[in-house]
Amino acid sequence: MIPIEVSNLKKYYGNVRAVDGISFTVNEGEVFGLLGPNGAGKTTAIEILEGLRKKDEGEIKVLGMDPWENGYKLHRRIGVIPQEFTFFEKTSPREAIIYYASLFGIKTDPDEILKAVLLEDSGTTLFENLSGGQKQKTGLALSLVNSPDLLFLDEPTTGLDPNARRAIWEVIRGLKARGKTIILTTHYLDEAQQLCDMLAIMNHGRIVARGTSDEIIKQHGSGERLEIQGDEALANFIRASTGFDVEFKNGLIGIPLKQKTDALNALEAAAHSKMDWGEIRTQRDSLDDVFVKLVSGVVDDHGEITGSNNG
């Protein structure tokens, strides 16, 4: 069974098309990343899949069920960690797991779950005394209490320091290794590249790109290029000698490479010029570069997607 099947999903709020006809599938054991700037429609789409919002149009199957019509049954088979997870301050992670298990009416081994999320050394620490990363791990622990078939992780590393983020990555990799299917929303593009098997990029309620990170870069990027440190005179010489579409900006000469031998021809022309030139390198667009081309959001110096609206 395919865990998630979405066809032409729509959700409108008056004249605002929050989700405007998106379609995708998520395969079993896959980490599927949903990216986009604030206001793209990610949160609305996820909440519909979780059965928290009612769709306007389209067909959805989550674990073979309609999320809105079969919400109670579905919720017993999924795990969810919301943005900025929090819990009772005077409760430890171990106590929280036991409490959640009682809500589901099931028995579970708290120590096994704490081990799965790399929290066994802090299982008896009060929530108020946990670090940001440990609090997020507690949220992940609670999402596993009911042994879910499908996990929804909504920006699980937002606001964490680099070490804490990477600790959460290890937990997610461990869950994938156990065969869990995971839907991940994130504002960190490096996180998406590290963790996700498949990606969908949303903008203004629509999916504007879908595939692996490499496929998206190949399809929407500008391709591989040679970069040479040099002046504009050298750029003009290489252009005249090779006929290549040579660009010059801020002391950097850029040459798109249609084939590998283009790099050799460009370097041969540079050598024949008798002009000074410096460092050389080949470069291709990153997921950051492609994202900026596809959507109206901006990627900051930390690789985080920023925007002006929520959603």
Give the SSE map.
Elements: E1 4-13, E2 16-26, E3 31-35, H1 42-49, E4 57-62, H2 71-75, E5 78-81, H3 93-104, H4 110-116, H5 132-143, E6 150-154, H6 162-177, E7 181-185, H7 189-195, E8 198-203, E9 206-211, H8 213-220, E10 225-229, H9 232-242, E11 247-249, E12 252-256, H10 261-272, E13 280-283, H11 287-294, E14 298-299, E15 305-306
Parallel strand pairs: 3-7, 3-8, 5-6, 6-7
Antiparallel strand pairs: 1-2, 1-4, 8-9, 10-12, 10-13, 11-12, 14-15
Verbal overview:
There is one protein chain. The chain has 311 residues and is α/β, with parallel strands linked by helices. The protein has two domains: 4-219, Rossmann fold, CATH 3.40.50.300; 224-283, Alpha-Beta Plaits (2-Layer Sandwich). It has eleven helices and 15 strands. The protein has helices spanning 42-49, 71-75, 93-104, 110-116, 132-143, 162-177, 189-195, 213-220, 232-242, 261-272, 287-294, and strands at residues 4-13, 16-26, 31-35, 57-62, 78-81, 150-154, 181-185, 198-203, 206-211, 225-229, 247-249, 252-256, 280-283, 298-299, 305-306. It has a six-stranded mixed sheet, with helices on both faces. A hairpin with a 2-residue loop joins strand 11 and strand 12 (252-256). The chain is elongated.
Task: Sum this structure up briefly.
By secondary structure, the chain is an alpha/beta fold. The protein folds into two domains: about 5-220, P-loop containing nucleotide triphosphate hydrolases (Rossmann fold), CATH 3.40.50; about 225-285, Alpha-Beta Plaits.
